[in-house]
Design goal:
This protein has helices spanning about 5-10, 25-30, 50-65, 75-85, 120-135, 145-155, 155-170, 190-195, 265-270, 290-305, 320-325, 330-335, 355-365, 375-385, 385-405, and strands at about 20, 35, 40-45, 70, 95-100, 140-145, 175-180, 200-205, 215-220, 230-235, 240-245, 260, 275, 280-285, 310-315, 340-345, 370-375, 405-415, 435-440, 445-455, 465-470, 475-480, 485, 490-495. By secondary structure, it is an alpha/beta fold. The longest helix is centred in the C-terminal third of the chain and has 17 residues, at about 385-405.
């Protein structure tokens, strides 16, 4: 359990007021933001976004009419203004204190330069900081960065004492402080963690292929509950966009327990009446067998009822899906233009799993999506190569969608076309229903068959039915009771006469 003794020692209420960090995502992770009048540490290698999120913290204070101060030993005011300009911000209401202004670095009377720490009087540096704070009297301060203070201190003991001096000084002021540290020291500076009220670590990961991934982790927040683990984020114009890790247990919503029609009477009959809201179905089969077409049928049937559906495509572009819909006689374009179906192509090399989960959540909560299609899990697997974590995140995502009353359609392509099949990922145990689609050869023609091999919610047919992709959509035939070995790819027909044509 986290330590809350400091609040009682200072006769402060246990439920202190929170202030925004300037990032809605980080506020969500922290359950509302920072405790006011405390000192926090942002640490991470150069390029992880520390300066950007620190500026967001100050600009949030400007929005609420506060005086804010940026103390810099590493970035010049010109460089900070350029960062702000790139994000569409202005720093005209932010006091920026360059501890070593360019016009004084060569002044022989000052001898104050970060390039020659041995010649610097650390006490003079500290006094300059205190004087500027007293002049501005800010309620929010960013100190950039501790690496320069570490150089000035020259040894770890003196460095720790200086950080403690800063903390004790700000303790007596109505001020929230963020310290930035770029982890440039070769030694372990975990001692800072014990000084700061909270610690947020930012990191950047270089993958073997594709864009770099950024993520953060709240390592410590004294006396505060927060969502642990790693949270993906991106740096975009306007600052850091943080995607809090999805925890399904935090999201519950009542919904009617009714079935979701597919628009195909025979398919609904095969499913024992249809698929229930708040469940998920896995469509599994070889490439091109009709999995995406079946998913499209559900999305368009939802749009015809006036419901919103979202189609996330990892493998195919919009043009390919539109062409398939036209071949099946489905009005995909019309419903996309009407806003009832949203098609989003996902590049797994560019989008992190956390960002994708946030996209799905926004589709449900902001767009009121009732059907979510993920085509396919093979592409999603490429976004997260480690299968263990893919299954864990998919479990959270499916549980969240179930608690929102959303029907989720998952597509998984098997390796191979006929005969024995290999599945790259076994996620069937997470699925409420599994529909298997297979090719089979009969009388010199390639045909398609489907069967419901699993359905947790209610009864379903245990038969295998032939189906065909036609200009009138998906046509499902009667149960194929006179065949055996269909899913092996080489069926045996035991009826009186061999059928020569596929189902019409």
């Amino acid at each position: 359990m986290t330590d809350t003794s400091s609040a009682f020692q200072n006769n402060e209420p246990a439920n202190l007021p929170r202030i925004s960090t300037g990032s809605s995502g980080l506020d969500d992770i922290l359950g509302g933001g920072f405790d006011a009048n405390r000192m926090y540490l942002y640490e991470g290698r150069p390029g992880t976004g520390k300066t950007t999120i620190a500026l967001q913290f100050l600009l949030k204070g400007v929005q609420t009419g506060e005086r804010v101060l940026y103390i810099t030993l590493s970035e010049t005011k010109r460089e900070l203004n350029l960062v702000a300009l790139r994000h569409g911000w202005t720093l005209k209401d932010v006091d920026v204190f360059e501890l070593v202004p360019p016009e004084t670095t060569l002044d022989p009377g000052r001898e104050l330069t970060v390039f020659h720490p041995a010649e610097v009087e650390l006490s003079e540096t500290t006094n300059l900081i205190f004087k500027e704070v007293e002049r501005v009297n800010p309620t929010r301060v960013v100190f950039d960065s501790l690496s320069e203070l570490r150089l000035l201190s020259q040894n770890s003991l003196r460095y720790r004492r200086q950080v403690l001096a800063l903390k004790h000084y700000f303790t007596h002021r109505n001020c929230t402080v963020i310290l930035l540290d770029d982890l440039s020291s070769s030694q372990d500076d975990l001692q800072l963690h014990s000084i700061a009220h909270g610690v947020v670590m930012l990191e950047q990961l270089a993958l073997d292929y594709g864009a770099e991934r950024r993520r953060l982790r709240v390592m410590k927040m004294r006396g505060m509950r927060f969502r642990g683990g790693f949270h993906d984020f991106t740096i975009e114009q306007g600052g850091l966009r943080i995607f809090p890790r999805l925890v399904a247990a935090e999201h519950h919503k009542p919904f009617p327990g009714e079935t979701t029609p597919s628009g195909n009477a025979e398919l609904d009959e095969l499913l024992g009446g249809g698929l229930e809201r708040g469940t998920n179905v896995l469509l599994i089969g070889a490439a091109g067998v009709g999995k995406s077409s079946l998913a499209l049928t559900y999305a368009i049937a939802a749009a015809e009822r006036g419901e919103h559906a979202v189609f996330f495509a990892f493998d195919e572009g919009r043009g390919t899906v539109e062409a398939r819909a036209r071949t099946l006689g489905l009005s995909f374009d019309k419903y996309v233009e009407a806003g009832l179906i949203r098609f989003q192509q996902i590049d797994p090399a560019e989008m992190s799993p956390g960002e994708f989960a946030a996209n799905v959540r926004n589709s449900v909560e902001a767009d009121n999506a009732r059907i979510i299609v993920i085509d396919s899990l093979n592409g999603y697997l490429n976004a997260m190569p480690d299968e263990r974590f893919l299954v864990l995140q998919m479990h959270e995502l499916l549980t969240y969608l179930a608690q929102q009353g959303v029907l989720t359609i998952l597509i998984l392509a098997q390796h191979g076309l006929v005969g024995p099949m290999d599945t790259p990922l076994d996620i069937s145990y997470l699925s409420d229903a599994v529909i298997m689609l297979r090719y089979f050869e009969l009388a010199g023609t390639v045909r398609r068959a489907l069967s419901v091999v699993k359905k947790r919610s209610g009864q379903h047919e245990h038969t295998i039915r032939e189906f065909r992709l036609s200009r009138d959509g998906i046509k499902v035939g009667p149960p194929m009771k006179e065949f055996s070995g269909i899913f092996s790819g080489n069926p045996l027909y035991t009826g009186p006469a061999m059928p020569e044509e596929p189902v019409r």
